[in-house]
């Protein structure tokens, strides 16, 4: 069932929802981008529908809510260990199809890998509901169609899309929402969200990758180009790695906290073990580690690919390295290897 | 029992055994089930956590042999008998001792790599045919030797080759890398013999090559991997190699699996 709203009507809906939820959505921050006079679109809590950016891809993913860049887990006081309190309240997250698919990958790691669920992730996750933002057209660098993440059938409360100055919402179920929508908008037959059906960027994922890929010369280019800044990981909606960090407030070191902070497999120190041991010293090896995880190693463990094709890594790379190009180079390498057999 | 797996528990330091200037064994109070090759996350609030292999198992204790090399491990050395450390674990699969009861078995360990296999070697001493059990242990120098009391016992009970990479003039023991002794192992049938190899990555690589050259089968060789680990629970990502997580699927792997695990 669909509804059409004026901007004011939708804002009334949002204000009503804000009584139940904190609302987390992409927002354009004017002039706050990487360079002078450049905007940035990233996630933030909003109270007004006009704050939400419907027309652009967010440069950072919604995952920062679930896996914060820095998250305190425990406080240490004398001999006591106290778990950090959780943020209160339910959150409504506005996101696109690719990101809703990314959520499945985050859940997979934090709730479905190994014998234990991650309680710090779970306590945030349990309070999240989602609103699907429709995608009438592909953005730059997106390759969701190739990754099969362009469409989403469920997992959200309602969809939202801006069309000719109107806000269209489709509500799959939920009677309570229907009532709220009815009061503030007009019923229309169809308000189904748009899904991207074609991207300019296309990738082919090889079904299997031989071990010869580890010594393939294609990685050398990235040893030369990549600066190991980790931006690709931090903007990726499916990257989940973190490092544990303890900090203390006092000189006697008896009061402090344990945090986990986002980690990147591209940044120095990711593999360092006591005594100076380090694996994957070159940026090319790290690139190979990351790329194979996204399009092969994750699938070997969980039966679907990790990468959702949002293209944020390409958007973010200061060296203009294209992840989708690398995927296609890997595919080419695999085809050539097969031909040589 | 706390349901949050990240919450460490306090464990009393029952004893401290000094091996070298840098390496001590901390005997920690622990009554749960543990296997050789498993590890604990040892934490000191304000410094952090580090994965440390179990080097000994008793009824109400575990031994953790710690080398003074990192930020966390330096701080551990300030803790002594009667004080306590925070632990989480045990984690990882560990060694299945039942696999090393019958027939010929070779254990090759280098440096702190002896810790995770110490329990395996103890097990070999108790088998009914300890003369079919071979142990090659290598240290950097005579001063770096760990578990000196154990080495004497192992030398009496089974076939021990103790070697050092280098030694001052006048040293009477073996000098040479562990790999030097693999070709001369007087095995009756390498094709059915089993091997456990633990040590620094190059040492494991060349030892496995030596064993394969001698006729060992890939599925009869086990290795144990060391990686950075921040959780031990399969979440933090640091220990992943290919499709496997060292903390969950290892740290003990057969060579059949580990040969495809390329960093």
Describe this protein's structure.
The complex is a heterodimer of chains A (341) and B (263). Chain A is of the alpha+beta class. Chain A has two domains: 174 residues, no CATH class; 130 residues, no CATH class. Helix content of chain A is 31%, strand content 22%. Chain A has eleven helices and twelve strands. Chain B is of the alpha/beta class and 263 residues long. The longest helix of chain B has 14 residues. Chain B is globular and about 50 Å long. The chains are: A alpha+beta (341), B alpha/beta (263). At the A-B interface, strand 4, helix 4, strand 11, strand 12 and helix 9 of A face strand 4 and strand 14 of B.
Give a topology summary.
The complex is a heterodimer of chains A (341) and B (263).
Chain A: E1 2-5, H1 7-17, E2 21-29, E3 40-46, H2 63-66, E4 70-77, E5 80-83, E6 90-96, H3 97-112, H4 119-125, E7 128-133, H5 144-147, E8 158-163, E9 166-170, H6 175-184, E10 186-188, H7 220-225, H8 231-235, E11 242-248, E12 255-262, H9 283-302, H10 312-316, H11 323-340
Parallel strand pairs in A: 2-6, 6-7, 7-8
Antiparallel strand pairs in A: 1-9, 1-10, 2-3, 4-5, 4-12, 8-9, 11-12
Chain B: E1 9-18, E2 23-29, E3 39-44, E4 48-57, E5 61-67, H1 71-76, E6 84-91, E7 105-110, H2 114-125, E8 133-139, H3 148-157, E9 159-164, E10 174-175, E11 194-198, H4 201-214, E12 221-224, E13 240-241, E14 244-245, H5 246-249, E15 252-254, H6 255-258
């Amino acid at each position: 069932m669909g509804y059409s709203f004026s901007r004011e009507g939708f804002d009334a809906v949002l204000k009503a929802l804000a009584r139940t939820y904190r609302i987390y959505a992409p927002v354009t921050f004017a002039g706050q981008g990487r360079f002078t006079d450049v905007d940035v679109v990233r996630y933030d809590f909003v109270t007004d529908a006009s704050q939400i950016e419907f027309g652009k891809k967010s440069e950072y993913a919604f995952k920062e809510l679930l896996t914060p860049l820095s998250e305190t887990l425990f406080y240490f006081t004398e001999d006591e260990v106290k778990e950090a309190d959780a943020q209160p309240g339910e959150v409504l997250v506005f996101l696109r199809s690719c990101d809703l698919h990314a959520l499945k990958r985050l859940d997979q790691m934090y709730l479905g890998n190994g014998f234990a669920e991650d309680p710090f992730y779970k306590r945030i996750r349990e309070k999240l509901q989602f609103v699907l933002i429709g995608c009438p057209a592909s953005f730059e660098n997106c390759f969701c169609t190739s990754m099969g993440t362009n469409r989403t059938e469920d997992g959200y409360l309602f969809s939202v899309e801006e069309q000719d100055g109107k806000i269209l919402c489709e509500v799959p179920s939920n009677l309570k929402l229907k009532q709220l929508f009815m009061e503030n908008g007009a019923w229309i037959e169809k308000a189904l969200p748009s899904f991207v059906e074609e991207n300019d960027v296309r990738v082919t994922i090889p079904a299997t990758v031989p071990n010869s890929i580890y010594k393939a010369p294609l990685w050398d280019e990235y040893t030369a180009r990549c600066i190991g800044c980790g931006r690709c990981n931090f903007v990726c909606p499916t990257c989940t790695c973190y490092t544990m960090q303890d900090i203390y407030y006092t000189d006697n070191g008896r009061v402090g906290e344990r945090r986990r902070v986002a980690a990147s497999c591209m940044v120095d120190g990711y593999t360092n073990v006591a005594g100076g041991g380090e694996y994957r010293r070159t940026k090319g090896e790290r690139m190979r580690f990351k790329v194979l995880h996204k399009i092969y190693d994750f699938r070997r463990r969980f039966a679907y690919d990790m990468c959702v094709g949002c293209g944020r890594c390409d958007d973010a790379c200061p060296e203009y390295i294209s992840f989708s190009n690398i995927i296609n180079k890997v595919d080419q390498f695999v085809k050539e290897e097969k031909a040589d057999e | 029992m706390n349901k949050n797996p990240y919450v460490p528990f306090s464990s009393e330091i029952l004893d401290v055994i000094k091996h070298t200037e840098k390496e001590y064994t901390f005997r920690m109070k622990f009554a749960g089930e543990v296997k050789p090759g498993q590890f604990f996350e040892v934490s000191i609030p304000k410094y952090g956590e580090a994965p440390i292999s179990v080097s000994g198992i008793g009824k109400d204790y575990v031994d953790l042999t710690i080398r003074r090399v990192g930020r966390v491990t330096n701080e551990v050395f300030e803790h002594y008998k009667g004080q306590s450390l925070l632990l989480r674990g045990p984690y990882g699969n560990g060694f299945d001792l039942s696999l090393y009861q019958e027939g010929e078995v070779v254990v090759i360990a280098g440096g702190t790599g002896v810790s995770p296999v110490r329990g395996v070697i103890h097990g070999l001493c108790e088998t009914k045919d300890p003369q079919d059990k071979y142990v090659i242990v290598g240290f950097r120098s005579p001063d770096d030797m760990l578990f000196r009391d154990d080495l004497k016992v192992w030398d009496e009970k089974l076939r021990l080759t103790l070697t050092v990479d280098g030694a001052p003039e006048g040293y009477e023991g073996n000098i040479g890398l562990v790999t030097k002794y693999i070709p001369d192992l007087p095995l009756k049938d390498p094709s059915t013999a089993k091997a456990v190899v633990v040590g620094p990555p190059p040492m494991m690589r060349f030892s496995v090559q030596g064993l394969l050259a001698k006729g060992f089968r890939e599925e009869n060789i086990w290795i144990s991997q060391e990686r950075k680990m921040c959780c031990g629970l399969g979440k933090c990502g640091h220990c992943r190699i290919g499709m496997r997580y060292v903390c969950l699927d290892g740290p003990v792997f057969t060579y059949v699996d580990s040969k495809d695990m390329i960093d």
